[in-house]
Write a structure and sequence with these properties.
The structure is a homotetramer of 125-residue chains. With 125 residues, chain A is an all-beta fold. Chain A contains no helices and 8 strands.
Chain lengths: 125, 125, 125, 125
């Protein structure tokens, strides 16, 4: 037991840039949920995607192995459906074990890339 | 009940750039409060804007539908009055239901845009 | 009583760029503690600056009027002494009333400015 | 006793850019854990590095003197082994005394640098 983490997280900002500039995959515009599973057991994670004008989609189910980090690009979520580009969304990330979640976006639409990051919002559990 | 969120939030930084560079609306300089309402009911949200040298203005009232996200640009707040550009401000965002709030700014005054984001500060409720 | 804020805050990162590029004061490289005082009374704030290899300096005393925001540039702190440029530091911001503190840096050393922001770390009180 | 800080911190995002652009060391691409020790005694800090596809490495042991800040570049961690560049990782930062931890990355791969920062996630202790 690593002694750090929460089971419920949320990211209110979401927006995947619609184009990129520079060599892929490193410079491909993307949004990522960086997940740390410090536990000695697999974490089963469910992501829900919320939109402005239609019902939420999900859960997208991912597994993070014990004592591993997974930097999950939102661009790569496919099942039940991909997230459309250039569209506002938000997400919740719920896990059966305590994890840590950080949000990052690389926007390479212009010749110089722009990066943002923030810890996700942690629920009380 | 989605089980995540708080009713009181604050953003201490606020400043809308006074000009832009690039195609609108995507590249228009703006500040945004990204709000997630994970509940099964409407969230009624009141934004107060605090200034350096005059009384606060508001509340600006917005409604976020159930299980939706609203990326509210501060630029678009009009009633009771628009927020002046190139002016320091801060904000509180209070809701009758638990929500999640994230702050973002796109500054496109220069040829390459600059992006910042952070979770807003969550009150104890 | 505005019902949001804490009395103790900390920012572990601090570094004022040593030069700037572009029109002042808007494009002057700077670090800022954005402070929101949502209370109906003055907040008396004390900032301590911590360094890598010498004793902390302070307190720098500032007052934030009731229901106002103050975007305090670290560059402008003078008493008891200015903060040297291009030097690592950290800070604590303690107040007699609950406030909200957010950290911002504009780095305009290069032709395109870089912006960062994060909520400061809130103590338990 | 400074009255602020926690003993357990985590950063879910980690990625050291593989090249740089501009004068070193200021413009060298790097990731940093900015640590503030506001206590009157030494803080003994242990950093664990988590990877995507192999066991965690560490602890990397560092000491932060009383009432000092240490801006520890992940690039400079050597013992038990350096962190590979252009590789996803995450970290936990545990201390015997309450500290404050903030995460920063400078990415200078392109002609204009990109900066990101966020407070690390604080455990409940």
């Amino acid at each position: 037991m690593a002694g750090i983490g929460r089971k419920k997280w949320a990211i209110a900002e979401g927006w995947i840039p619609s184009w990129s500039h520079g060599p892929e995959p490193e410079m491909l515009s993307h949004e990522t949920a960086c997940i740390l599973n410090p536990n000695d057991a697999e974490a089963h994670v469910e992501i829900m995607i919320y939109y402005t004008d239609r019902d939420p989609v999900g859960p997208y189910k991912i597994t993070v192995p014990p004592r591993r980090t997974l930097h999950q690009r939102f661009n790569d979520l496919k099942d039940p459906e991909p997230i459309p580009k250039a569209t506002n969304y938000a997400s919740t990330i719920f896990s059966d074990l305590p994890i840590v979640v950080q949000h990052t976006r690389l926007d390479s639409r212009q010749s110089e890339n722009a990066l943002i990051t923030t810890m996700a919002f942690a629920g009380s559990e």
